[in-house]
Specification:
This protein has 264 residues and is of the alpha/beta class. The protein is 44% helix and 15% strand. It has helices at 16-29, 45-49, 62-65, 67-73, 88-98, 100-107, 121-132, 153-156, 159-166, 179-188, 192-197, 207-225, 249-257, and strands at 3-8, 34-38, 54-56, 78-82, 110-117, 139-145, 170-174. It is globular, with a radius of gyration of 18 Å.
Amino acid sequence: MSTVHFVGGEKGGVGKSVVARLLAQLFIDRALPFVALDADLSHGALRRYYADYTQRVDLDQLDSADQILDSALGGDRVVLVDLPAQSHRALERWIESTDVLNYAREMGVQLVSWHVTDGGFDSVSHLEQVLAAPGDGLQHIVVKNQGRSRDFSQLDASPAYQRLLERGGQIVTLPELDSSVMYKIDRFGSSFWAAINTSEGPQALSVLERRRAKLWLERAQAALVAAGNWRPATEHASAVVVPQHPESAQQQLESAASNERVTT
């Protein structure tokens, strides 16, 4: 069965793309065949940090949005969609005009919605709107991003929280990474793998910064894994999407780091 993961939250600045990057790294680490689609046409975090695995998708164009289901139907794989802020209407238009929910059910494609939140009013209100509709055919996972906030009392007390639990949805708490380390990773344009494995050069973190990043990545991925049914890397490993360029940035880093792996 293929699974489509929509990573959103509607509000800007809550850390949606960080969660999308974490999922991409998780799929790579577990050798899961996947396709990443970046719907953020202005910033494009997945296209920047995981360019070898990512394609562009325009939700305002129905034929472009069709890539989402087309990718899922092309084989047993994971499809990761990074949604920009204020994209709910465009996504809803595609879903309704194409009858996506029923078609996905007929084709055996599972749809998962990751709602990343900072616990603020706008974020909670949008979640309430999403969950107000009766069964929508989506599996809902709410991510409390501690990198953006530590106060989720408004979410915990909201009708959306109770409705989520009634529908069998899940809550994930994403730990915070030291802001200076995250800033450097973002500035370097590094994948999370590269951030913890690059030990030399202008884009290298210090030893202790790499250790903090490594521990955070392990804890963050453990939190995400607890919310999903992730297949182990078995015979599917050979089906992993292969980068189009043989000397990709990540491959170059792997080669450079082959004799000097971090052993923290």
